[in-house]
């Protein structure tokens, strides 16, 4: 959420500078709503002043004064109700307006204008035509798309035998790396969350169609970013306790309502998937150093697994709702001859903290400030499994297990 005073002063400029980000967000009508509310507040305050003036007069009031007091009481009640309604409308509008891009974010309308920052590794070469994972997995008996569909419909997969073991090995490898070497505290949060938490991190109200909701009004999480960031919702932290760094591996659930026709084959875009998330809360002046640190921790997973990747800086038109700056890590998939996103690492600055009321105090007695929140995938398990199958495949259909993973998996190959 952006501050009301900031929106009041900058709504028109934001629309002019970043139409690709703010057009259709409700920012166009924000100024009018705000002016209406301020006009109503001005009228309400005038009526209250008049009521106080009359109340201060000593002696028995005349019938005319009594009639005016009665009228003022009704007018004040009506204006208070109007202000309450307008406050609600402003709150709704503010909750739908995305974060302001950082000055370093490239300008562009869509993902075609994202900027490559760097790359690592060389895509493997083969003396045969490499196959996609949706052919390799079933042939090895480790991925079962048909039974996944039979159990629960499309975009769901059953992992069997070495497939399930490889997924579990990846989870343990990534968590050990983030906790033992990078200093994150492991958390095992609920995969159900309330609407307040989703409002805090920005999944609600804009992305409700992508969420699965229970009869009790709870939601299945689409990312562990939601519970991890909300661990400190409505708290004031001590500056000496920052940064807070958390990691979790959870199942994630996404309806993929806006992904019709995209990545319909295989495991790249699923309704249920596992993901290791890394989250940090820090002081504002340190958050961009923290973003580079967090992004490096996600990259290290790919380097240890020797999977070629590139780092993309998302442009203003492709930036996520809550993010001020995002780096996407895209891994090479040999069977599809393309790069696919495997991690997004974002600095949300104070946007989520303001929504979730996560603050810190620099010293006793000083006014609390909002922390900056950061998050990234470290990594998506299913997409990492896909990358291993496609990049480490052999001509006979077997798959080599990356050396860094062998102690977790218990073997050097899958046949």
Helix content: 40-55%
- Number of helices in the DSSP assignment: 13
Rg over CA atoms, rounded to whole Å, is: 26 Å
For this structure, the CATH topology of the largest domain is BirA Bifunctional Protein, domain 2
Which residues form runs of ≥5 with pLDDT under 50? Answer: none
The overall average pLDDT, rounded, is: 96
Text of the CATH class of the largest domain: Alpha Beta
Number of strands: 18
Quick structural gist:
The protein has helices at residues 4-17, 19-22, 27-56, 63-95, 133-140, 145-152, 162-181, 195-201, 225-230, 287-304, 351-356, 381-391, 406-409, and strands spanning 115-120, 143-144, 158-159, 185-186, 192-193, 212-213, 219-220, 235-238, 244-253, 272-282, 309-313, 325-333, 338-347, 358-361, 369-370, 372-380, 399-400, 413-414. It is an alpha+beta fold.
Q: Could you list some keywords that capture this structure?
A:
415 residues; 18 strands; Helix Hairpins; 13 helices; 21% strand; alpha+beta; three-stranded antiparallel beta sheet; BirA Bifunctional Protein, domain 2; single chain; eight-stranded mixed beta sheet
């Amino acid at each position: 959420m952006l501050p009301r005073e900031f929106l009041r002063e900058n709504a028109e400029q934001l629309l002019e500078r970043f139409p690709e980000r703010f057009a259709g967000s409700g920012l166009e009508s924000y100024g009018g709503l705000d002016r209406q509310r301020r006009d109503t507040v001005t009228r309400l305050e005038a009526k209250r002043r008049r009521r106080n003036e009359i109340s201060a007069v000593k002696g028995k009031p005349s019938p005319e004064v009594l009639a005016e007091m009665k009228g003022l009481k009704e007018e004040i009640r009506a204006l208070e109700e109007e202000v309450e309604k307008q406050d609600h409308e402003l709150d709704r509008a503010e909750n739908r307006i995305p974060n302001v891009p950082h000055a370093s974010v490239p300008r562009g309308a869509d993902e075609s204008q994202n900027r490559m920052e760097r790359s690592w590794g060389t895509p493997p070469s083969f003396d045969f035509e490499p196959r996609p994972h949706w052919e390799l997995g079933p042939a090895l008996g480790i991925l079962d798309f048909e039974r996944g569909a039979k159990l629960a419909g499309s975009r769901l997969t059953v992992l069997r035998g070495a497939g399930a073991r490889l997924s579990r090995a990846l989870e343990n490898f990534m968590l050990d790396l983030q906790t033992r070497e990078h200093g994150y505290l492991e958390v095992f949060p609920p995969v159900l969350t309330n609407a307040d938490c989703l409002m805090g991190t920005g999944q609600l109200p804009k992305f409700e169609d992508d969420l699965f909701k229970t009869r009790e009004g709870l939601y299945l999480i689409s990312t562990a970013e939601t519970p991890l960031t909300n661990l400190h919702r409505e708290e004031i932290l001590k500056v000496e306790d920052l940064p807070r760094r958390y990691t979790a591996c959870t199942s994630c659930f996404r309806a993929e309502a806006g992904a019709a026709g995209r990545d319909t084959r295989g495991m790249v875009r699923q309704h249920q998937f596992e993901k290791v998330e890394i989250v940090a809360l820090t002081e504002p002046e340190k958050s961009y150093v923290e973003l580079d640190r967090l992004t490096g921790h996600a990259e290290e997973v790919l380097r240890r697994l020797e999977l070629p990747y590139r780092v993309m800086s998302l442009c203003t038109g492709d930036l996520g709702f809550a993010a001020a700056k995002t780096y996407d890590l895209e891994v090479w998939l040999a069977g599809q001859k393309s790069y696919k996103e495997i991690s997004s690492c974002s600095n949300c600055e104070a946007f989520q903290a303001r929504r979730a009321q996560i603050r810190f105090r620099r010293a006793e007695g000083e006014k609390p400030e909002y922390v900056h929140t950061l998050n990234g995938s470290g990594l998506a398990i299913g997409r990492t499994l896909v990358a291993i199958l496609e990049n480490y495949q052999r001509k006979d259909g077997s798959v080599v297990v990356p050396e860094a993973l062998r102690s977790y998996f218990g073997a050097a190959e899958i046949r």
